[in-house]
Specification:
The structure is a single chain. By secondary structure, the chain is α/β, with parallel strands linked by helices. It contains 14 helices and 15 strands. The strands form 3 sheets. An 11-stranded mixed beta sheet has the order 5-4-6-7-1-8-15-14-9-10-12, sandwiched between helices. Helix 12 links the parallel strand 9 and strand 10. Helix 4 packs parallel to helix 7, helix 8 crosses helix 14 and helix 11 crosses helix 12. The protein is globular and about 60 Å long. The chain starts with a strand and ends with a strand.
């Protein structure tokens, strides 16, 4: 039997909070992180979408990042390091890195991080500089900053994690697939501890214009806070978000040996591919259904043990329905007993970081026995046959389980399953 893996630390830097406590409290209170953009480039390029969910504070305002570090990192790397440092401290290792912590072997400490776009700000800024000022004006650190693996490398170097530092790039399923990788690293015996998560910093005029051209974004410019409305009949697209989240995963044996506080058991994962369309989900949701069933099977979780799902639910007209179809297919009549939260209604869509943040929400839902809110749901789509949580809801006592789903362009489907402890 494979060894148990547990969650011992959490970190987050999000549109609704600079850390986990603030983010979680705001998720319970239904606070929206979606705001009108004030940057000059919105008007300069006449962008059709003028709002997004930027991080609650500038990363330079965080106590977990110095100005020197910030200069050497793309915003995606900055976000990742802030979240990873919070998670590491929250896990109670008693030292700033794996090298200094008692009972932690740096050679058995790994990093698994996901991102959808990597250092897009660095890349596009470098192109602007090259075009306008010539090659001599490019920053020497441009390549290390724009690499998709830059965030994982920064976390690895800072926390002295030497087992491996790996990056998963699977669009909006990236960080959920990074969690799948992290679980395998521990269960295969490669690592005792993994800093797992995801990061994204892609609120840029080019990406906004490109997503808008695809008609993927909401155009509710007059009411940004109400724009992200999963499952509502008036939903018209997702909202660009940014930020990072991290989880400290350990073998149960390792965590108990050092007396760690355990939030939840990381029980199983499911990953599949639609092989259907580069951007649209399979309407029959066969891939999503397989991923859900695989997560339950690998986690040793019975259907009636699941009481909560943090849904992918991006607020797109075509995306929300297949996920609901998959949940109904897997859970059958028990679907009516599953409390479904759509937290992107508050955070917007963090793309490659979304899965990690929603995994944090799922772990906290189990730990506190409370499912967070879904806001802006005024008239539910009749095709969405789910019990959607619109105010914080108490979850039952006993041995319960919860899932978090992520789906990405390219047909990626990924599910993570957690059990209460």
């Amino acid at each position: 039997m494979s060894q148990k893996v547990v969650v011992t630390g959490l970190g987050a830097f999000t549109p609704i909070g600079e850390d986990v406590p603030t983010t979680w409290q705001n998720a319970l209170e239904g606070v929206s992180g979606v705001r009108t953009l004030t940057e000059e480039w919105v008007e300069q390029y006449e962008l059709p979408v003028t709002f997004a969910a930027k991080t609650a504070i500038d990363p330079l305002e965080s106590e977990r990042l110095s100005k020197v570090e910030a200069k050497r990192l793309d915003p995606s790397g900055q976000f990742a390091l802030i979240a990873a440092r919070e998670a590491w401290a929250d896990a109670g290792f008693g030292a700033d890195d794996a090298e200094a912590a008692d009972g932690v072997d740096p050679l058995r400490t790994a990093v698994a991080f996901g991102t959808g776009m990597g250092g897009v700000w660095t890349l596009l800024d470098a192109w602007d500089t090259l075009r306008d000022k010539g090659p001599r004006r490019l920053l020497p650190m441009s390549v290390p900053m724009l690499m998709p693996n830059s965030a994982a490398a920064a976390v690895s170097m800072n926390l002295k994690a030497r087992a491996s530092a790996q990056t998963v790039v699977s669009a909006c399923a990236s960080s959920t697939e990074a969690l799948d990788l992290a679980l395998d690293l521990i269960r295969s015996g490669k690592a005792d501890v993994v800093i797992a998560g995801g990061t994204e910093a892609a609120i840029h005029p080019t990406t906004i214009a490109a997503f808008a051209k695809m008609q993927a974004l909401s155009t509710r410019n007059d009411d940004p806070a109400a724009a992200s409305r999963p499952y509502d009949t008036d939903r018209d697209g997702f909202i660009m978000g940014e930020g990072a989240a991290a989880l400290i995963l350990e073998s149960e044996e390792h965590a108990k040996a050092r007396g760690a506080r355990i939030y939840a058991e990381f029980a199983g994962t499911g990953v599949s591919a639609d092989a259907y369309h580069i951007t649209a989900p399979d309407p029959a949701a066969m891939g999503a259904t397989r991923a859900l069933r695989e997560a339950l099977e690998k986690g040793g979780i019975a259907v009636d043990q699941v009481v909560h799902v943090n849904a992918h639910a991006t607020s797109t007209p075509v995306g929300d329905i297949p996920e609901a179809t998959a949940l109904r297919e897997v859970f059958g009549e028990h679907t009516d007993n599953v409390a479904v939260s759509a937290t992107k209604s508050m955070t917007g869509h963090l793309l490659g970081a979304a899965g990690a943040l929603e995994a944090v929400f799922t772990v906290l839902a189990l730990h506190h026995r409370t499912a967070p809110s879904t806001i802006n749901l005024e008239t539910k789509d009749e095709q969405i046959e789910l019990d959607v949580v619109t105010t914080p809801r108490q979850l039952p006592d006993g041995n319960i389980a919860a899932l978090s789903n992520s789906f990405g362009f390219g047909g990626h489907n990924a599910v993570v399953a957690f059990k209460s402890v």
